[in-house]
Amino acid sequence: MLPIGSPVERPAAGPLFGPVIWSVRGTPSPGRTDSNRPEAPARATIAGMRLSRRHPLFVVGLLCAAAVLVARPTAAESDGGGAPGAPGEAGISAQVARLFEDAAVATQQYEAGRRAAEKQKAEARRLETLLARERRQIAVLNADLGRIARAQYREGGGVPYTAQMLLAEDAEELMRGQRAVWQADLAVNNAVAKSRRAESRLAADEAKATTAWQALEGRNSELAEIKQTIQQKLEEAQWTLQGQADVAVAAGACRGAVRLDQPVTGRTSAWVAPVETYELSAGYGSGGERWASRHTGQDFAAPIGTPVRAVGAGRVVKVSCGGAFGIEVVVQHEDGYYTQYAHLAAVTVDQGERVDPGQWIGQSGTTGNSTGPHLHFEVRVTPELGSGVDPVPWLLKHGVRL
Q1: CA distance to 99, 125, 131, 155, 295, per residue, from 208 (Å)
Q2: Beta strands at 314-320 and 298-301: parallel, antiparallel or unpaired
Q3: Using an 8 Å Cβ cutoff, are 377 and 344 in contact?
């Protein structure tokens, strides 16, 4: 396998399987695919010379057929970097984009439900704690009532209160003491009643909170199943898209631009990151077994089919399929720099087309010399490999912090 970011010329294999590199006007660049093309008109002329003496009518017909074949443009020679995408190809790209949106919505709903369930669960636990504390308080009050009752029994010795008054040396003192006991008894009884009412309210609130929590948990289970189903469909569509891209790269013929509905973002910034959601992986200038020399760009790990965005306004100067970079797009910007987007699964722009900041120009993939789904992004001073600069500080200079 060739190293990522350092394409090496493949052996000439004819126009069907060789890499096709497009120039600004959509014709193959000199010294690349053209050198592998057989000289069909010359052979036709020679054949005509050999057969002209015996079969003049056949020679005329042969020359006409050759002229038609030479005049008819092939898919790889059409303007815009390739033939228009077939309906099925456009459909799978659109399906991947739509499933990405569906998965994002499902994830947001699931996360919102999970947060609500966690909040309701915390509330139920809080009420459970308060209820336990209220029950402990009731137990203490009941213990106080028991102590008061036992104290009354010990002081009275089991003798009725009327008899105690008749036998008492100071009846008034006995009444004062008894009144204090009754007041304490009443206060404890009131406290117990109040605590029991609080206990009932807390128990009702706890039951309501628990019911709501359980309902949210059930809804979250449903959302998790929906999310999983969408993810499965997305994965199937992603690899179908990648399979189509691999076929195009093997043939060295781009499938053409797939037109997708561009998102309405209301963006006002002149520069953006090439993908919206990503993880930075191999950086500029890094070394290793994967590259013949140093890595020439910045890699953004992203799933297959992730929308790839033009980092700034410019014009598409190259759409290429085949070689180490797989499917790639090169954009020339107004400040004279060029940006390259490689290992794509699909392109959504044509060569020569003007693009705006944040416009979708393709979908990420793992075509060419790639070990996994990611976007290889380069900033160059010319359209060609070998003129790159470090993309991270370049983007930072333009107000984009990765």
Answers
A1: 37, 12, 14, 48, 60
A2: unpaired
A3: no
- Geometric angle at alpha carbon 279, from 277 and 285, rounded to 5°: 130
Give the separation between CA 340 and CA 318, rounded to whole angstroms.
9
CA-to-CA dists, residue 195 to 154, 188, 261, angstroms: 28, 10, 63
User: Which residue blocks in 80-170 are alpha helix, DSSP H?
Assistant: 87-156, 161-167
Q: Look up residue 299 and give its two tokens.
A: 């890699």
Convert the pLDDT of each residue in 97-121 to its tens digit.
888 889 889 889 888 888 888 888 8
**Confidence at residue 136, expressed as pLDDT on a 0 to 100 scale:** 84
Interatomic CA distance for residues 231 and 138, integer angstroms: 53
Residue 107: which of 277, 266, 260 has the closest Cα?
277
Q: What are phi and psi of 322, to 5 degrees?
A: 110, 160
Question: Quick one: tokens of 271?
Answer: 């520069």
CB 28 within 8 A of CB 76: yes
- For the entire predicted model, the pTM comes to 0.58
pLDDT tens sequence across 296-321: 999 999 999 999 999 999 999 999 99
Partner residues linked to 189 by β-bridges: none
pLDDT score recorded for residue 60: 41
Cα–chain center distance at 277: 6
Chain centroid, CA 390 distance in Å: 25
Nearest Cα to Cα of residue 21 among 280, 322, 279: 322
Whole-angstrom Cα distance, residue 303 to residue 100?
A: 10
Is the CA virtual torsion 274, 280, 284, 289 positive or negative?
negative
Residue 344: both structure tokens together: 């794509």
- More confidently predicted of 126 and 264: 126
Say how far apart CA 221 and CA 183 lie, in whole Å.
56
Sign, Cα dihedral of 77, 82, 84, 85 = positive
| pLDDT, tens digit, 9 for 90 and up, residues 47-90 | 343 434 444 444 445 444 444 433 333 333 333 344 445 445 66
